[in-house]
């Protein structure tokens, strides 16, 4: 289940500055893609502290974009890993990564509409 970035909310926040919103979306696409690679590597190495740190960063990125459900999933896994609850973490992380990939695709589509 993916979410759609709240472009209207970003526009309201920015005073209807489409260039600013496009910049935010572009940054999100780039950052999310690199964080996915980074978190996959940390998970393969079972470096759960690093995974936790990256989840926290990803959660911070999701907040201003209005991605509440994604943010909640990131926070839930982050909290479990802080408590050293790693059972099922790989599967949860895979699900989160797939959701982020869909969100990135959505952001790319929204960028195209902003640039039209």
Summary keywords:
Four Helix Bundle (Hemerythrin (Met), subunit A), 116 residues, mainly alpha
Concise structural overview:
This protein has 116 residues and is an all-alpha fold.
Instruction: Kindly provide the name of the CATH class.
Output: Mainly Alpha
One letter per element, helices H and strands E, the order comes to: HHHHH
Number of beta strands: 0
Question: Which blocks of ≥5 consecutive residues have pLDDT under 50?
Answer: none
What's the gyration radius in Å?
15 Å
Proportion in β-strands? under 5%
| Mean pLDDT score | 92
Helicity range of the residues?
Answer: over 70%
Write the layout of secondary structure elements.
Layout: H1 7-13, H2 18-44, H3 48-62, H4 68-82, H5 89-115
Walk me through this protein's architecture.
The protein is built from five helices and no strands. The chain has 116 residues and is mainly α. It has a single domain, classed as Four Helix Bundle (Hemerythrin (Met), subunit A), CATH 1.20.120.
